[in-house]
Specification:
Length: 474
């Protein structure tokens, strides 16, 4: 009888522990949070920009709109080569300049007479968007479009009627080529002091035809420009932004705000960092020897993806309609560099302890979640604790110079300041090795190589109890 009582007591305690862990509620969201499509967009991290059109053939960055459509005549256009290159480079999608400021449409639009239909390419029967969207499906890439509201060719531009023309143009594209993961809006408007654009109409049109598309502009609403064309996010980079009183273009928030976001911003509008592999956005033979180096690309990657932003790297096709061999080769060299850098995560099998765990040391929120490779599990300290730490103990001493951290952003961005330390092998004391402000979806910090077996990450300041779902050491 006594043995039965002992067994039942043990069983009940175990059951209470297991069910208690299971039923412990998750923390409440903190501030604005990403929509499902914004979260999936953030997970893409790195994708290709394609600038292509009459400017490719005229050596211009901004066309006048008066170019003869006859200049557009790529001899060997190959969208499958673009997609294959992007896929092999580790990119997750392609965004193309379907209509740049010159108004030339890379598809035979019903709402313009300045299109591929008026060009000699494929005797006026070609459609770049059809070919590229199909190539993206074939290579398992997401397809996105850039459509500039500014149109230096269309006769109704600048009138009230033009807004509806542009909305019709949007609808035409967004209903014809399958899923669009990102709609890219440029706010340029020439010398006009204020862009005469009906943004509400444009956004509603996107939502009507592509409700899951992330809308890019200086103020989102899906994602925002990072404030420069160098591909660099701020060392502090909040995915939150206040947009009241601002519009895309000349009335955008200041560049420093776009670069860092707003800590208490009302809306979830993460940053996208755009930059070109070449000095210009469109192909020019004069820049064939001026590609960014692998080291420059790595610096950009760490300054964008490594600072809570997505990287949109422009790789312009040449006048034949293909990505030049040198550009493709540089992308592959860059991928090789990234793969080598992230080849061995020495924290993968480390033991982790935390200063505090939510709900009385609940396993559901324990520190082991930080290294379990699941995006949807995380460590979080006790409720109300916004300062806490966790310690990583490696199997043996290792030399490393980079740390990668991730917050569980589906419940908001919280961390405002953190520090990384390790045990100094010579004196056994804690040695600071890195510090930062925001983490967000992903933060990567590099530092001078150190050798240790014990590392501590301390969250020093946060708006709510931190949620950390990943740490990697290299």
């Amino acid at each position: 009888m006594e043995n039965k009582i002992v067994f039942l007591t043990f069983f009940c305690m175990t059951w209470a522990l297991l069910t208690g862990c299971k039923n412990t509620p998750a923390p409440e969201p903190y501030g604005p949070v990403p929509a499902p499509e914004q979260l999936e967009w953030q997970k893409m991290e790195y994708y290709m920009f394609i600038h292509f059109g009459p400017n490719t053939f005229t050596d211009m960055e901004w066309g006048t709109g008066g170019e003869d459509p006859g200049v557009f005549n790529p001899a060997a256009l190959d969208c499958r080569q673009w997609a294959s290159t992007a896929r092999q480079a580790g990119m997750k999608g392609i965004i193309i300049t379907a209509k740049h400021h010159d108004g030339f449409c890379l598809w035979p639009s019903k709402f313009s007479t300045h299109t591929v239909r008026e060009s000699p390419w494929k005797e006026g029967k070609g459609d770049v968007l059809a070919e590229l969207s199909q190539a993206c499906r074939e290579y398992d890439l997401k397809f996105g479009v850039y459509l500039s509201p500014w149109d230096r060719n269309h006769p109704s531009y600048g009138t009230e009627q033009y807004n509806q023309v542009f909305a019709n143009t949007l609808a035409e594209v967004l209903s014809s080529y399958g899923p669009v993961f990102e709609q890219w809006f440029d706010g340029a408007c020439g010398n006009e002091t204020e862009a005469p654009y009906d943004w509400a109409l444009f956004h509603n049109t996107v939502r009507e035809y592509q409700k899951h598309a992330v809308i890019f502009s200086d103020v989102g609403p899906g994602c925002r420009w990072v404030g420069n064309e160098r591909g660099m996010a701020g060392e502090t980079n909040w995915s939150r932004l206040d947009t009241a009183g601002f519009t895309p273009g000349k009335n955008a928030p200041p560049a420093e705000v776009l670069n860092s976001g707003n800590r208490s911003g009302k809306f979830w509008i993460p940053a996208e960092a755009d930059v070109s592999l070449r000095p210009g956005w469109f192909y020019s033979s004069s820049t064939d020897s001026s590609l960014k180096t692998v080291d420059e690309l790595m610096e950009i990657y760490l300054g964008s993806v490594g600072r809570n932003a997505n990287l949109l790297l422009n790789v312009p096709p040449d006048r034949t309609g293909r990505i030049p061999h040198g550009d493709s080769l540089r992308l592959m060299e860059f991928k090789k560099k990234r793969m080598a850098l992230f080849a061995k995560n020495i924290a993968e099998s480390a033991q982790i302890e935390a200063s505090s765990v939510r709900a009385g040391n609940s396993r559901r929120f324990g520190p082991a979640n930080i290294t379990d490779k699941s995006y949807d599990t995380y460590w979080t300290p006790e409720e109300e604790k916004v300062a806490a730490s966790f310690t990583i103990t490696l199997d043996r001493e290792e030399t490393f110079s980079m740390i990668l951290l991730q917050e569980y952003i589906p419940l908001g961005q919280r961390v405002a300041r953190f520090m990384v330390e390790c045990i100094n092998t010579s004196d056994g004391l804690w040695q600071p090795i890195a510090q930062g402000t925001t983490i967000g979806y992903k933060r990567i910090l590099t530092f001078s190589p150190v050798t240790s077996s014990v590392i501590r990450v301390s969250i020093l300041e946060a708006g709510a109890p931190p949620l950390i779902n990943c740490i990697e050491l290299y």
